[in-house]
Design goal:
This protein is of the alpha+beta class and 128 residues long. The chain has two domains: 96 residues, no CATH class; 29 residues. The chain contains four helices and five strands; from the N terminus they run αααβββββα. Strands 1-2-3 form a three-stranded antiparallel sheet, with helices on one face. A hairpin with a 2-residue loop joins strand 1 and strand 2. 5% of the residues are buried.
Length: 128
């Protein structure tokens, strides 16, 4: 993955977690489409639940309940522009996602997010 990114974008390219998520997300989606034998969103959604993929940063899994991703957490120290030293990992064990901080209920979060979406002119960019 890193070699492909650097070959395409240059050796100075700083690869981040969003780039990796986009990469493995396509593979998870493709697996789900193959299993569902359909591009229909509802069928793909059902097929992606619990799906796993050996991503560049470690194994990922789509949580069956929340559709968020189990991931391997890592803590690092910044050692230079775009460079980190991993100071603590989780020995490769993915942790279950907690998509909403627990000080609100999921329903309260949904209402809050809907209010932001409405306030922002029915888009997610925060601008009209």
């Amino acid at each position: 993955f890193l070699e492909k990114v650097k070959a395409k974008l240059g050796n100075d390219t700083i690869v981040n977690d969003s780039m990796e998520a986009g990469y493995y997300g396509v593979y998870l989606w493709a697996q789900a489409v193959r299993e569902a034998k359909s591009f229909e969103p509802d069928k793909v959604l059902q097929a992606i639940k619990g799906r796993t993929y050996a991503a560049p940063g470690g194994s990922v899994e789509i949580d069956k309940d929340t559709l968020h991703t189990y991931m391997v957490p890592r803590f690092g120290k910044i050692i230079g522009p775009g460079k980190f030293e991993i100071i603590q990992g989780n020995e490769g064990k993915p942790l279950r996602p907690i998509p909403y901080p627990r000080y609100r209920s999921p329903e309260s979060w949904a209402k809050y997010l809907d209010s932001l979406h409405t306030t922002w002119g029915n888009n997610w960019f925060g601008t009209n």
